[in-house]
Write a structure and sequence with these properties.
The structure holds 5 protein chains of 5 kinds. Chain A is mainly alpha-helical. Chain A is built from 21 helices and 2 strands. Classes of the chains: A mainly alpha, B mainly alpha, C mainly alpha, D mainly alpha, E mainly alpha. Chains B and C meet through helix 1, helix 2 and helix 3 of B and helix 1, helix 2, helix 3, helix 4 and helix 5 of C.
Chain lengths: ~525, ~100, ~260, ~625, ~525
C-alpha cells in the first residue's frame, strides 16, 4: 500500500496555487499567470507520477486509497482513491488546465468588459482544478457531493465574471440548473445513508454502499435522485438547455473546462454511482435512459446543424456526444462502457481543440461567435484554420483519432446488446460529419470575409497551447493502450458489480455453432 | 350552573378582543382589545384554578397582570412616540413598510 | 361534586357575565376611543367580581387596583395626550378587512366555545378550599407560591418592570440638549434682540375685508404694518389704508359717540 | 483456413510502407514554412521509397510458395476490452501486394507530375502533405489485417480526398464539393461500421482471418446483411449508385488528385473491399446479386453522364464511375469475377491515371480551362500529351492489345458465364464507352481550335510529360504483362478462390461482339464531333443529355430526399429547443417570479392585515389539529 | 373563610420551605439580569461621556461571564427552581450559542465608526424625526446608551426562554425577551419613521401572539391542572379524553411560539420589522430570537406535547411547507436587502421546522445544529449590511450593491460566503445544517417534505445568488454603496461570523457531536 497521500497532494497543489495567485499583489498580472501555469504544470507532472504508479494489472481496482474520518457523526470520511476511470479523467483535467491557462493567457485583457481581475481568473481556474480532481477521486459519496457542488462556485464566477454579454443570465441558469440536480441528489444521497443506517451505523463509504443490497423499490427512487443530477450535468436530453447558454457566454477556456471536464462528472457519476449502487434500478430504467440518450444524440446533432453561433453549436454537439456516452454506459456491455470512458477523454480533448481554436479566432474578431461573421479564414490564418479543422475532425470522430476509438466502442457495445439501438446510433455519425464540416466550410473556406484580412495567424503561445491536445488526440488514437489498460479492469469491476455479462458472439470462439443470426 | 360557563365567557371575551384587534383602527383601542384578550385568559386561569383545585392558576393570573402592566407601559410609549411623529394614532397610517 | 355552585353565584355570574360582555362589545363598537376605554373599565370591574366569585378575592382586588386603577388610567392618560376626541371613521379602508375579521373572530369564538363547552360539559370544580387551607388562606397560598414555586418568575418580572420604565423614559421623555433658559434670560434676550419687545398690535378690525390684512391704526392715525401677520406682509398682501375709509370711519365713530 | 505467415525479411518492414509517407505528411504539415522549399521533394521521395520497398517485397513474395504468401505483422494491441481485441496489425498477401504496387507506383508518378503541375501554387507544400497522407491512408487500407484498421484507412483516404478536393478552398464550390464528398462517404462508412459490428457480434472478431475462417458457419441471413452493408460502404467510396453524387463534384480538386484518388486508387477501394470479403459474398447470394445490380446501374449512369459532360474532368469522372461499375459488377459475379475485377482495377488505375494526367496537362496549357468546347486541335501544340492520351483512349475503350482490352474483355466474358443479360449489358456499356471517349478525344485534340482569346496552349514540362509517357507505356503493356507474364489469376487465386476458367469458345464470340460494339460507339463519337463543327455553347440537347448534364438528377434527388428534410428538421428542432425546451425552463422561472410578485402583495403593510392572517392561521391550526384527532 | 389573614402567630404559619434553586445553573440568566440592573445604574450615575465605555464593559463582561457559567454547567441535567427551569443539553447548548451570538450582536450595536454621526441608534429616541432637537442631539454626539440595559434584559429573557420548564416562566421570559426588542426596534438613527412603524407593528402583533400563547396556556392548565411541561405531558398520557381543551390549548401555545419563529402564516411582521429596525438590532433579532423561539418551541413540542406527536406533526408539516415556500418565493422579488434577508429568515425557519417535524433525537439535534449555523451566518450578513453605506445611511436597496465586489472585494467575499451558506452550498455551515435536517427528516420518513424543501432551497438559492451576481457581475457605478471602514467591533463580528460559517462547514464534527450529545430534553 501507498503511504504517501498522493491524491491529496495532487488536489492540494492547484489549491495552493490558487491561493498564491489570489494573494499576489494587484497589478502583477504576468507573475500571476506564470505562477498559475507553473502550478498547473506541477499538477500535471504529479498526475503523471501518480499514473505511472497505477497498476493496471492489479486485482485491486481502486488504488492510492486514503481514508480519514471526517464527520463520523454521519459516517462520513475523507476517502480518496482512484480506479482507472477516475485516473484517466483526473489526467484529462490535469492536462487541460495548463492548456487552458496558456490559451487564456490574455483572455481577461482582451475582453474589454471583463468584470474581474487577471489573477482572479487564474486563481479560479486552479481552484476549479482542485475540485475536479476531488470529484473524480472521492470514494465517499458525501465527499463526492461536496466537490460536485463546490465545483459550481468557481465555474459560476468564471462564467459570470469573465464571460460574454449574456454571462449573468447564463451563470445563474447554469448554477440553478446544477443546483436543482444537486439538491435531488442530496436527497437521494441522504436516503441512501438512511437505508445504510438500517443495519447500524450509516455510511457514505462508496465501497460499503456498492456492496449493499438495497430493495428494488427503494433503489428506483434513490437512483432517480442521483441520475437526475448526473443527467443535468452530462447533460442528457431534455435537461440540456443550460449548456448552450453557459458555453455561449463563457470564455473558450472556461467552456473547455466546463464541457470537457465538468460535464464528464455527470457521466462519471452514472458509471461510478448509479450502476454499482443501484444495479436493479439501473436495469429497470435502462430502456428509458437509452431512449433519451438516442434522442439526445440526434437532437443535439440536428440542432447543431441549424446553429448560427459557434459556441452554441459546440454545446449542442457536446450534448449529442453525451448522448452517445450515456448510451454506452447503459447498454451494460464492457465494450460500451470502456468506450464511454475513452470517449469522455476523447471528447475532452476534441472539445479543447475545437473550442480553443474557435476562441483564438473569435478573439481576433471582436469576440464574435456568429458563424455568419466569418468566411475564408483559411486564407487569412491557415494555421488557425488547420487546428480548427483538426478539432472538427476530432469531433466527428475521424478514425485514427482517439474519439473514433471511443465512439466505435460505444456503438459496438450498443450494437452487441441491442442491435437496433446500435444501428440507429451509428447513423448519427453522418449528421456529426455534416455539422462539423458545415461549420468549417462556412467559416474557413471561400473568399476572405470583410474585416478578416489582417487578423493574423496563431502565435507561438497559442500553438503551444493547442499542440498537446492535438498530439494526445492522435497518439491515443493510434495507441490507446495507456487508457484502455487502466480503464478496462475498472469497467470489469463495474460490470461485475451490476452483475451484467456481455453477450457472447453468435458463433462463439470455437466457430462450431452455425445457429442464430443477429436477428 | 356549570362552572364551564366561566370558561365559555372567557372564550367569548377572547374572541371579541380578537375581532376588536382586527376591525379597530385606533392603535390604543387595538391595544385595549389585546388587553381584553389577556383578561379573558386571566379569567380562564382563575376559573380553571377553581376547577382544578390548585392555586397555580391564580398565581399565573397575578403574574399576567404584572406582565400586562409592563407591556402596557411599553406599548403606550411606542404609540405615543408614533403619535408625536405622525400626529395620528391610526394603526393603518404607518404603512411605509410593505411588500 | 365537592363544591356546588349556588344560586347566588349563578345570578352574579349571569349579571357580571352580561355586563362584561356588554363592556367588551362596547369596547369594540364605540367610535370614540375614550368611550372604548370606559367600556373596557366596565368589563374589568365585572371580571374582578367574577374573580371574587371564583374564590380569588386577592386577584379580584388586584384586578381593580392594578388593572382598572392603574392600567386603565394609563390608557386614559395616553388618550388624553393623543386627543380625547379621536374617533374612528366608520369607513373601513382595507378591503374586506372588517368582514373577514368579524368572520374569523366569530369562527374562532365558535370553535373555542364549542370545543371548550363540550370538553367541560359535566365537569365539576374541585374547589379551592383545600388549596387555600394549606397555607391558611388565599392570599397566603398565593404568597407562598410566588415566593417558592414561582420565585424565579417573580424575580424575572422585575426585569420586565425595569424594562417598561426604561422604555417609557427612552421613548417618551424629552430630554433637553441645553439648559432651560430662565425667565430673566428670556426677557433679556427679548430686549437685546432689538426687535419690538412688547406685544405687537393686533390688526385693525374693519370688517369690510379679510380683516387680518388690514393694518391697525396707531394713535396718531398712521397704519402700523407690524400688526399684519408676517406671512401676509411677506406676500405683500397688506391692504393699504384708504383715507376715504378713514373719514368714513371717523364719521361713524362720531355718530356712535353722539 | 488459410495459413498466415509471420513477417520476416523485407516483410518485417511492412509498417514502413505506411510510415514512410505518413512521416512525410507529418513533416510537411507540421513543419510549417521552413519546409516550403524542399518539402515537395521529400513528399515525392517518401512515396518513391515506399514504392521501392513494395517492389522488394514483391520480389521476396514471389520467392515464396503460393500458400505462404500471406504475411502478417502485428505491431501492438490496438483496441481492446473484455471480449474485444483488435491489433494494429498488417497483412500483406497477394491482393494487398498488387494494391501496394499500384498505389505506390502510380502515386510516385503522380507525385512527380505534381511537382510540375503545382509548381506555382503557394500552398504546394500542403498539397504534397495531403498527397502523402493519402498514400499512407490508402496503404493502411489495403494492408490492414482486420476490418477496423481497414476502417481507419478507409476514412483516412476519405479525409485526404476531402482535403484535396477542397484544396482550393477559396472557391466556395471546391469547399462545398469537399464537404459533400466526405458526407456521402460517411453514409457509406455507416455501412462499413455496421458491417464490422455484425461481424463482431457474429464472429467475436473482426480480423480477416477469423471472419473468413468462420464465415461458413454463419447463417446466410447474417452474411447477406454483412454483404449488403459492405456494399453500401463500397458504394460510398467507389461512387456507385446511389452514392455516386460526390465524384463529379470532386473534380474541383487539382487534377493530379483526380488522377490519383478519384480515378486510380481511392475510388477503387470499394472493389477491394468486396473482393477482400469474397468469403462473405460467396456465401451470400443475394448480396452478390445486389452488387451486380449496383455495378450495372453505375456502368450506365457513369457512361451516360460521361457522354454528356463538356467538362473534360467531369466527363472522365463519369467514365471512372462507369469503369468502376464494371469492376463492381465483376466482383459481384463471384469467384470467376474477383480476379478480373482486380485486373481491371489495375489496368484502369494506370490508363485512367494517364488520361487524367493528360487532361491535367491539357488544362495546364489552357489556363486551367476545362470546357472541351473551347479546346480543339490541341494535337498540334501538345504532341506528347496527345499521344499518351490517345494510348489511354485506346486502352479504356478496349482496343487490343492495350491494357483495357484484356481486363474488360475478361469481365464481359465472366459476365456471360453468369448470365447473358449481364454480359449483354456490359457490352452495351463498352459501346457507350467508345462513344464518349471518342467524343472527348475528338473535341480536345482534333477539329478546329476553339480556344479563348488569351489562351496560348503549350506542351507541359518534362516533369509532367515523363509520368505521362510512363503511364502510357503501362497502359499499353500492363494488360498483357499481367495476364501472360504475371499470371494474375494464379497470383490472386489464394485470396479470391479458384476461378472456373471461362470456356475459350465464348471468349472468341464475346471479343468479337464487344469489339464490334466499341467500334460502332467510337465511330459515332468521331463522326458526331469531328465531322460537324463543335458549337462553343452547348446545344440544348435531348432529354437524356440534359439529365446527364445534371448528373442524372443525383443531386436533386439528394436535395429532395435528404438535404431539405434535414435542413427543415434542424430548423424545427432549433425552434423547438428555444421555444419549448428552453421555454419550459424559463417559463418555470417566470412563473415563480410572477407568483412571488403576486404573493408579496399580500404583505400589505397594514398591521391589521397581518393580525388577520394570524387569526386566520390560528383558526386553521385549531381546525387542523382537530381534524387530525377526529379522523 | 375563617382563617384570619393577619396577626397570625409565627408558629401558626405553615413552615415556609425555601425554594430549592441551583443558582449555579441559572447563573447565566442572573448575570445578565444583574448586568441589566447595573447598567441602569450606570445610566443613572455615570456622567454622559463615560457611559458608553462603562456600559460596554458591563455588557461584554456579563456576556463572557455568563458564557463561562454555561461552560461550567456543561453536561448538567437538572430541573431546578421548583420545576420552573430545566437545565439540560439543548438548553445549555442554546444558551451558549445565544451568548456568543449576542456578543457578536453587541459588537455590532457598539459600532460607531461606520456612521459618521454615531452608532446605529437615534441620539435620543424621544425626539421628533427631523426636528431641531434631533439635529442638535446628533450634532452634540449624544448616544442613547439606554440600549444596553435593554439589550441585557432581552438576552436574559432569551436565556430563560430556552430553559423554562413551565408555561408561566416561559410567558414571562417571552415578554422579557420581547419588550426590549420592541423598544430597540424603534430606535434607529436613520429612517426613523420606518423604525417607529416597525416597533409598533412588532409590538402590536407580538402582544396579540402573547395573548394567544397565554390563552393556550390557560387551556392547557385547565386540561392538566398544571403549567409544568412534564406534568402536562404526563396528563396527556394519563387522560386521553377532554382532547378539545388540550388541542385548542396546544394550538394556541404553538401559535404564540410559531409567531416568534416567523412561521407562515404568522410571519408577516418579520419583513417589516427586519427592514425597519436598526441593522444591528435586526441582526441581533434575526439570530437570537430564532434560536430562543425554536428552543422554546422544541421544548414544548418534545417535552409537553411529545405524546401528541401524531396530532401536531401534520399541522407542522403544512406550516413547514408553507413557510419554506412562501419565504423563498417572496424573497426572490425583493429589492431591499434587509427585507430579502427577512424573507430568507422565514424560509430558513421552514427548513428548521423540517427537522422539528421529524420528532426524533436526530431531528432535535439537526435543528439545534441548524440554529447554531444559521445564527452565526446571519449575524455576519447583517454586519456587512451595516457597513454598506451611502450618504443617507445604510444602502439597503439592492441596486446599491451592484459592483460592490469590485469596490470592496474582501467584504463582498465575506458576504458571498454568508449567502452561499444560507443557500446551502457545501463547505459552509449552511450545507451541513441542511444536510443534517434533511437526514433526520428522511430517516423519520418525511421524504416528500424533504423534496419540497429541496425545491424551496433551489428557489432560495436563486435570490441568495442574485446578490452575488449583483456584487460581482455588475460594474460599480456612482450609485454603488461604499463599504465604511469599521472599528474593531464590526470587524471582529464579521470575521467571527465568517469563520464559524466556514469552520462549521469544513469540520462540523465537534459541533455535531455536541448537538448529538444534547439531543434529549430533560423531563
Amino acid at each position: 500500500m501507498n503511504t504517501v497521500p498522493w491524491l491529496t497532494i495532487l488536489g492540494a497543489v492547484p489549491l495552493v496555487g490558487s491561493a498564491v495567485v489570489a494573494l499576489l499583489p494587484k497589478g502583477r498580472d504576468l507573475i500571476a499567470k506564470q505562477v498559475a501555469l507553473v502550478f498547473s504544470l506541477a499538477t500535471l507532472a504529479l498526475t503523471i507520477v501518480v499514473a505511472l504508479q497505477f497498476d493496471g494489472g492489479s486485482s485491486q481496482p481502486f488504488q492510492f486509497i486514503e481514508s480519514v474520518p471526517w464527520i463520523p457523526a454521519f459516517g462520513i470520511s475523507y476517502g480518496l482513491g482512484v480506479d482507472g476511470i477516475g485516473l484517466v479523467l483526473i489526467a484529462l483535467a490535469a492536462t487541460l488546465v495548463p492548456v487552458v491557462i496558456l490559451a487564456g493567457w490574455r483572455d481577461v485583457e482582451d475582453t474589454p468588459d471583463a468584470r474581474g481581475s487577471v489573477k482572479g481568473y487564474f486563481a479560479l481556474i486552479l481552484a476549479l482544478e482542485t475540485t475536479m480532481i476531488g470529484v473524480f477521486a472521492a470514494t465517499d459519496v458525501f465527499l463526492f457531493y461536496v466537490f460536485f457542488e463546490v465545483m459550481l462556485v468557481p465555474t459560476y464566477f468564471l462564467i459570470g465574471r469573465y464571460g460574454g454579454p449574456q454571462r449573468s443570465y447564463a451563470a445563474v441558469k447554469f448554477l440553478l440548473y446544477s443546483l436543482l440536480g444537486g439538491l435531488f441528489m442530496l436527497a437521494a444521497m441522504i436516503g441512501l445513508y438512511v437505508v445504510s443506517a438500517q443495519g447500524g451505523q450509516g455510511t457514505f463509504n462508496w465501497f460499503d454502499l456498492a456492496g449493499m443490497d438495497i430493495d428494488p423499490t427503494t433503489q428506483k427512487m434513490l437512483f432517480l435522485g442521483f441520475f437526475f443530477a448526473f443527467a443535468i450535468k452530462a447533460p442528457l436530453w431534455p435537461f440540456h438547455t443550460w449548456l448552450p447558454d453557459a458555453a455561449g457566454a463563457a470564455k473558450p477556456g472556461t467552456a473547455v473546462l466546463l464541457i470537457g471536464v465538468l460535464d464528464k462528472v455527470g457521466t462519471f457519476g452514472m458509471i461510478r454511482y448509479c450502476l454499482p449502487i443501484f444495479p436493479a434500478a439501473s436495469e429497470f430504467y435502462a430502456p428509458v435512459i437509452i431512449a433519451l440518450a438516442l434522442v439526445g444524440l440526434f437532437y443535439g446533432a440536428f440542432v447543431a446543424l441549424g446553429q448560427g453561433d459557434m459556441k452554441r453549436l459546440f454545446a449542442y454537439s457536446s450534448m449529442s456526444h453525451f448522448g452517445l456516452i450515456v448510451l454506452g454506459i447503459f447498454v451494460f456491455t464492457t465494450i460500451g462502457q470502456s468506450g464511454s470512458v475513452v470517449y469522455m477523454v476523447a471528447h475532452g480533448l476534441s472539445t479543447a481543440a475545437l473550442f480553443l481554436a474557435a476562441g483564438f479566432l473569435m478573439q481576433r474578431n471582436r469576440g464574435s461567435s456568429l458563424i455568419a461573421d466569418y468566411s475564408g479564414v483559411n486564407k487569412a490564418a491557415p494555421v488557425l484554420a488547420g487546428f480548427f479543422l483538426f478539432g472538427a475532425l476530432a469531433t466527428l470522430a475521424l478514425p485514427g483519432l482517439v474519439s473514433f476509438i471511443g465512439e466505435f466502442m460505444v456503438l459496438l457495445g450498443s450494437f452487441q446488446r441491442f442491435l437496433w439501438v446500435g444501428a440507429i446510433a451509428t447513423l448519427g455519425i453522418v449528421i456529426t460529419a455534416a455539422y462539423a464540416l458545415r461549420l468549417y466550410q462556412r467559416t474557413m473556406t471561400g473568399p476572405v470575409g470583410p474585416g478578416l484580412e489582417g487578423i493574423g495567424d496563431l502565435r507561438g503561445r497559442e500553438i503551444t497551447a493547442l499542440m498537446p491536445v492535438v498530439a494526445l488526440t492522435i497518439l491515443l488514437g493510434l495507441y490507446p493502450a495507456p487508457v484502455l489498460n487502466v480503464v478496462n479492469p475498472a469497467i470489469d469491476n463495474v460490470m461485475s458489480s451490476i452483475g451484467a455479462t456481455d453477450p457472447a458472439p453468435v458463433l462463439g470462439s470455437t466457430g462450431t455453432s452455425s445457429e442464430g443470426t443477429e436477428q | 350552573m356549570n362552572p364551564a360557563n366561566y370558561i365559555v365567557l372567557s372564550a367569548v371575551l377572547f374572541s371579541i378582543g380578537a375581532i376588536g384587534v382586527l376591525v379597530r383602527r385606533n392603535a390604543i383601542v387595538v391595544f385595549m382589545c389585546v388587553e381584553l384578550m389577556l383578561n379573558a385568559a386571566n379569567l380562564a386561569f382563575v376559573a380553571f384554578a377553581r376547577m382544578n383545585g390548585n392555586l397555580d392558576g391564580q398565581v399565573v393570573a397575578f403574574f399576567v397582570m404584572v406582565v400586562a402592566a409592563a407591556e402596557v407601559v411599553v406599548g403606550l410609549a411606542i404609540i405615543v412616540q408614533i403619535f408625536r411623529t405622525r400626529r395620528s394614532a391610526s394603526i393603518d397610517e404607518p404603512n411605509l413598510l410593505k411588500y | 361534586m365537592s363544591e356546588g355552585i349556588n344560586l347566588g353565584e349563578t345570578i352574579v355570574f349571569w349579571v357580571c357575565a352580561g355586563l362584561a360582555t356588554l363592556g367588551a362589545l362596547g369596547l369594540v363598537l364605540s367610535r370614540k376611543a375614550v368611550h372604548s376605554a370606559l367600556w373596557m373599565a366596565l368589563t374589568m370591574i365585572n371580571l374582578a367580581i367574577l374573580y371574587v366569585a371564583n374564590s380569588a378575592p386577592f386577584l379580584g382586588m388586584v384586578q381593580v387596583i392594578v388593572y382598572t386603577g392603574a392600567v386603565m388610567m394609563l390608557f386614559l392618560f395616553v388618550l388624553m395626550v393623543v386627543g380625547v376626541d379621536a374617533s374612528d371613521s366608520l369607513i373601513e379602508t382595507i378591503k374586506g378587512q372588517r368582514a373577514a375579521g368579524v368572520l374569523l373572530g366569530l369562527a374562532l369564538g365558535v370553535l373555542m366555545v364549542w370545543g371548550i363547552g363540550s370538553a367541560l360539559a359535566g365537569v365539576a370544580p374541585a374547589g379551592l378550599e383545600r388549596a387555600n387551607e394549606i397555607d391558611g388562606g388565599n392570599v397566603q397560598g398565593i404568597a407562598r407560591m410566588i415566593f417558592t414555586d414561582y420565585l424565579v418568575a417573580f424575580e424575572a418580572t422585575s426585569a420586565l418592570l425595569i424594562t417598561a420604565a426604561m422604555g417609557a423614559m427612552v421613548l417618551a421623555h424629552r430630554e433637553r440638549w441645553a439648559a432651560r433658559p430662565t425667565q430673566e434670560q428670556l426677557s433679556k434676550a427679548r430686549f437685546l434682540s432689538g426687535e419690538h419687545p412688547g406685544n405687537k398690535p393686533s390688526p385693525g378690525i374693519y370688517a369690510r375685508h379679510n380683516a387680518v390684512d388690514t393694518p391697525a391704526l396707531l394713535p396718531d392715525g398712521t397704519p402700523s404694518e407690524l400688526s399684519v401677520p408676517r406671512p401676509l406682509r411677506a406676500r405683500g398682501d397688506v391692504r393699504p389704508v384708504d383715507h376715504a375709509d378713514m373719514t368714513e370711519i371717523a364719521e361713524i365713530e362720531e355718530v356712535d359717540a353722539t | 483456413m488459410e495459413q498466415i505467415m509471420p513477417a520476416t525479411g523485407a516483410f518485417s518492414l511492412i509498417w514502413v510502407l505506411i510510415a514512410l509517407p505518413l512521416a512525410g505528411a507529418a513533416v510537411l504539415l507540421l513543419g510549417g514554412r521552413m519546409t516550403n522549399k524542399w518539402g515537395p521533394y521529400l513528399g515525392v521521395l517518401t512515396v518513391v521509397g515506399s514504392a521501392a520497398l513494395g517492389v522488394v517485397m514483391l520480389l521476396q513474395m514471389m520467392g515464396l510458395p503460393a500458400e505462404d504468401r500471406s504475411i502478417q505483422q502485428v505491431a501492438y494491441r490496438w483496441v481492446f476490452a473484455d471480449g474485444l481485441s483488435v491489433d494494429m496489425a498488417f497483412r500483406l498477401d497477394q491482393l494487398s501486394m498488387v494494391f501496394v504496387l499500384l498505389i505506390t507506383i502510380v502515386g510516385s508518378l503522380i507525385h512527380v507530375y505534381s511537382l510540375g503541375y503545382m509548381e506555382h501554387d503557394p500552398d504546394r507544400r500542403k498539397f504534397f502533405g495531403y498527397l502523402n497522407l493519402f498514400v499512407a491512408a490508402m496503404l493502411l487500407l489495403v494492408l490492414a489485417n482486420n476490418y477496423l484498421l481497414l476502417y481507419v484507412g478507409w476514412e483516412g483516404v476519405g479525409l485526404a480526398s476531402y482535403l484535396l478536393i477542397g484544396f482550393w478552398q477559396v472557391k466556395p464550390s471546391a469547399a462545398a464539393a469537399a464537404k459533400k464528398a466526405f458526407i456521402i462517404n460517411r453514409v457509406g462508412d455507416v455501412g462499413l461500421g455496421l458491417a464490422i459490428m455484425v461481424m463482431f457480434v457474429t464472429f467475436g472478431s473482426v480480423t480477416f482471418a477469423d471472419v473468413f475462417g468462420q464465415a461458413s458457419a454463419a447463417s446466410e441471413g447474417t452474411l447477406t446483411a454483412i454483404g449488403l452493408l459492405l456494399l453500401l460502404a463500397a458504394c460510398g467510396k467507389s461512387a456507385q449508385f446511389p452514392l455516386q453524387a460526390w465524384l463529379l463534384d470532386a473534380m474541383e480538386g487539382p487534377t493530379p488528385v483526380s488522377a490519383l484518388i478519384h480515378a486510380a486508387t481511392m475510388v477503387t477501394a470499394g472493389v477491394y473491399l468486396i473482393v477482400r470479403s469474397n468469403a462473405i459474398f460467396d456465401r451470400a447470394v443475394w448480396a452478390a446479386t445486389a452488387v451486380v445490380v449496383v455495378g450495372l446501374i453505375t456502368v450506365f449512369m457513369g457512361a451516360i453522364i460521361g457522354s454528356a459532360k463538356d467538362d473534360i474532368k467531369k466527363s472522365l469522372a463519369g467514365s471512372t464511375m462507369s469503369q468502376i461499375g464494371y469492376m463492381i459488377t465483376a466482383a459481384g459475379l463471384g469467384p470467376i469475377g474477383y480476379v478480373f475485377a482486380i485486373f481491371h482495377l489495375l489496368t484502369h488505375g494506370v490508363f485512367k491515371a494517364g488520361l487524367f494526367l493528360g487532361a491535367g496537362s491539357v488544362m495546364h496549357g489552357m489556363n486551367d480551362g476545362v470546357n472541351m468546347r473551347r479546346y480543339g486541335a490541341l494535337r498540334k501544340v501538345m504532341v506528347i500529351t496527345t499521344i499518351t492520351f490517345f494510348i489511354g483512349y485506346l486502352a479504356i475503350i478496349g482496343i487490343p492489345p492495350f491494357a483495357g482490352f484484356w481486363s474488360k474483355d475478361e469481365i464481359i466474358h465472366a459476365a456471360f458465364e453468369k448470365g447473358p443479360v449481364i454480359g449483354a449489358l456490359l457490352i452495351l456499356g463498352a459501346g457507350i464507352t467508345g462513344f464518349y471517349m471518342s467524343r472527348m478525344v475528338a473535341m480536345t485534340f482534333f477539329g478546329k481550335a476553339r480556344w479563348e482569346d488569351d489562351v496560348h496552349p503549350h506542351e507541359s514540362k518534362a516533369v509532367m510529360t515523363i509520368p505521362l509517357i510512363i503511364l502510357a507505356i503501362g497502359s499499353t503493356v500492363l494488360g498483357m504483362a499481367l495476364l501472360f507474364w504475371g499470371h494474375i489469376e494464379e497470383w490472386l487465386e489464394p485470396v479470391t478462390g479458384i476461378a472456373t476458367a471461362p470456356s475459350p469458345l465464348s471468349t472468341a464470340a464475346t471479343i468479337g461482339i464487344s469489339l464490334a460494339f466499341v467500334i460502332v460507339g467510337a465511330s459515332i463519337g468521331w463522326i458526331m464531333y469531328l465531322r460537324r463543327e463543335v458549337p462553343i455553347t452547348a446545344p440544348r440537347g435531348s432529354l437524356l443529355t440534359r439529365a446527364a448534364r445534371r448528373d442524372l438528377y443525383g443531386d436533386d434527388v439528394n436535395e429532395v430526399l435528404v438535404v431539405r428534410p434535414s435542413y427543415w428538421l434542424s430548423r424545427v428542432l432549433v425552434w423547438f429547443d428555444r421555444a419549448w425546451v428552453d421555454g419550459f425552463v424559463n417559463g418555470i422561472a417566470a412563473f415563480v417570479g410572477g407568483f412571488s410578485g403576486r404573493l408579496r402583495r399580500y404583505q400589505s403593510g397594514f398591521a391589521r392585515s397581518y393580525a388577520l392572517s394570524m387569526v386566520g392561521g390560528a383558526v386553521l391550526v385549531v381546525l387542523a389539529l382537530l381534524l387530525v384527532r377526529l379522523s | 373563610m375563617s382563617a384570619p389573614a393577619f396577626g397570625m402567630h409565627l408558629a401558626d404559619v405553615v413552615p415556609f420551605n425555601l425554594p430549592s434553586i441551583d443558582y449555579r445553573l441559572i447563573a447565566p440568566i442572573l448575570i445578565l439580569m444583574g448586568a441589566g440592573l447595573l447598567s441602569v445604574l450606570v445610566e443613572a450615575f455615570i456622567p454622559r461621556r463615560g457611559r458608553r465605555p462603562v456600559q460596554l464593559i458591563v455588557v461584554f463582561v456579563a456576556l463572557l461571564a455568563a458564557f463561562a457559567m454555561v461552560l461550567a454547567a456543561a453536561g448538567s441535567r437538572a430541573v431546578t427552581a421548583e420545576g420552573s427551569i430545566a437545565i439540560d443539553g439543548p438548553g445549555l447548548l442554546l444558551q451558549g450559542t445565544l451568548l456568543l451570538v449576542a456578543l457578536l450582536a453587541a459588537m455590532l450595536m457598539a459600532e460607531r465608526m461606520v456612521d459618521p454621526s454615531g452608532d446605529a441608534f437615534a441620539p435620543r429616541a424621544s425626539t421628533l424625526p427631523g426636528s431641531e432637537d434631533e439635529r442638535q442631539f446628533t450634532q452634540r454626539g449624544y448616544l442613547q446608551t439606554e440600549i444596553w440595559p435593554l439589550f441585557c434584559f432581552s438576552v436574559s429573557g432569551m436565556l430563560l426562554f430556552v430553559v423554562s420548564n413551565d408555561l408561566l416562566i416561559m410567558f414571562v421570559a417571552l415578554e422579557i425577551m420581547s419588550l426590549p426588542l420592541y423598544l430597540l426596534a424603534g430606535m434607529a438613527r436613520r429612517r426613523r419613521l420606518l423604525s417607529q412603524e416597525a416597533a409598533m407593528k412588532y409590538f402590536l402583533l407580538g402582544a396579540l401572539s402573547s395573548a394567544f400563547f397565554l390563552y393556550g396556556s390557560a387551556l392547557l392548565y385547565g386540561f392538566s391542572g398544571s403549567i409544568d411541561l412534564p406534568v402536562i405531558a404526563d396528563q396527556i398520557t394519563a387522560k386521553p379524553s377532554q382532547s378539545w381543551l388540550l388541542m385548542i390549548g396546544a394550538a394556541f401555545v404553538l401559535i404564540g411560539l410559531l409567531f416568534k419563529v416567523g412561521a407562515v402564516p404568522f410571519h408577516q411582521w418579520v419583513p417589516d420589522v427586519y427592514q425597519g429596525s436598526p441593522t444591528p438590532v435586526t441582526g441581533f433579532m434575526a439570530a437570537t430570537v430564532k434560536i430562543a423561539a425554536f428552543g422554546a418551541l422544541l421544548r414544548v413540542l418534545y417535552v409537553a406535547l411529545g405524546g401528541l406527536q401524531w396530532d401536531w406533526a401534520p399541522m407542522l408539516w403544512i406550516i413547514a411547507i408553507l413557510t419554506m415556500v412562501v419565504g423563498s418565493v417572496i424573497a426572490i422579488t425583493q429589492t431591499d436587502i434587509k427585507r430579502m434577508l427577512a424573507y430568507s429568515s422565514i424560509a430558513q425557519a421552514g427548513f428548521i421546522l423540517v427537522g422539528v417535524v421529524a420528532a426524533t433525537r436526530e431531528g432535535l439535534a439537526s435543528a439545534l445544529f441548524y440554529l447554531i449555523a444559521y445564527a452565526f451566518t446571519t449575524i455576519g450578513a447583517f454586519a456587512v449590511i451595516a457597513m454598506a453605506r451611502d450618504s443617507s445611511g445604510e444602502a439597503t436597496h439592492l441596486s446599491r450593491w451592484a459592483g460592490l465586489g469590485r469596490k470592496s472585494p474582501i467584504v463582498a467575499t465575506a458576504f458571498t460566503i454568508f449567502m452561499l451558506a444560507l443557500a446551502g452550498i457545501p463547505l459552509t455551515s449552511g450545507f451541513i445544517a441542511k444536510f443534517s435536517v434533511f437526514t433526520a427528516a428522511i430517516a423519520a420518513g418525511d421524504t416528500w417534505l424533504v423534496i419540497v424543501a429541496v425545491l424551496a432551497s433551489l428557489v432560495a438559492a436563486f435570490f441568495y445568488l442574485r446578490v452575488v451576481v449583483l456584487m460581482f457581475f455588475a460594474e460599480p457605478g456612482p450609485e454603488t454603496a461604499t463599504v465604511a471602514v469599521p472599528s474593531v467591533f464590526t470587524t471582529v463580528a464579521l470575521a467571527a461570523g465568517a469563520t464559524v460559517t466556514v469552520v462549521l462547514g469544513v469540520v462540523p464534527q465537534p459541533v455535531l457531536e455536541m448537538v448529538a450529545n444534547a439531543d434529549v430534553f430533560i423531563r
